[in-house]
Amino acid sequence: MTERTKNKTPHVLDARDERSVLISPENEDRFVLSCKETIQAVQSGLGEIAFQAELKELIKHISEWVTKRIESLHACYLASRDGDLVVFSVPKSDQYDNLLADELTELDVELAEKFQYWRCQVVQIPGKSSTELAAFLDEEQALAFHGPQDQATATQGEVAS
User: Fold this and answer.
1) What CATH number was assigned to the domain covering residues 54-155?
2) Are residues 84 and 22 in contact, defined by beta-carbon separation less than 8 angstroms?
3) pLDDT tens digits for the chain (161 residues)?
């Protein structure tokens, strides 16, 4: 540890301060920013961390929801459509499942209340065949929730969780 990092007194940056800040990361790049720009960059970085953490929590929440309903679901997917995330639920029944529709409404409300960064729509779709499913989403771009009777898992090649 160098002498500079032993000092426990924090540097104070005030957005109203017109001075510049020299930032020198370990890779020896140098950045000169105003105090206000530095504060905005930190807030943006913290926002990105919260954004990613909330996405992981959203995926976990949906996975747990699917796990509890695995007997009534043929499949469940999370996909992006028109700037929003959409939870597509395919019932095991060949008919529209009214009981599942009620549970989807509850899920829709839960997601809206719990997740501030991610807007989600929740829909029930026919999709037992690839042709039916393709009318609603691209399976290769969607996160699929599936699993044995006691546990749902999320899988998709492009999404890291």
Assistant:
1) 3.30.70
2) no
3) 455 556 677 767 777 877 777 777 788 777 777 777 777 777 777 778 888 899 999 999 999 999 999 889 999 999 988 878 999 999 998 899 999 999 999 999 999 999 988 889 999 998 888 888 899 998 888 999 875 443 455 555 333 33
**DSSP 8-state secondary structure symbol assigned to residue 47:** H
Backbone angles phi, psi at 138, to 5 degrees: -95, 110
What pTM, to 2 d.p., does this model score?
Answer: 0.69
Kindly list the distances between the CA atom of residue 101 and the CA atoms of 1, 108, 124, 151, in Å, as whole numbers in the listed order: 59, 10, 7, 21
In the block, tokens 């549970």 appear at: 103
What H or E segment, with its residue span, contains residue 81?
strand 73-81
CA distances from 74 to 15, 59, 67, 101, 117 (A): 53, 18, 12, 14, 28
Query: Given the structure tokens 């790049």, which residue do they identify?
Result: 29
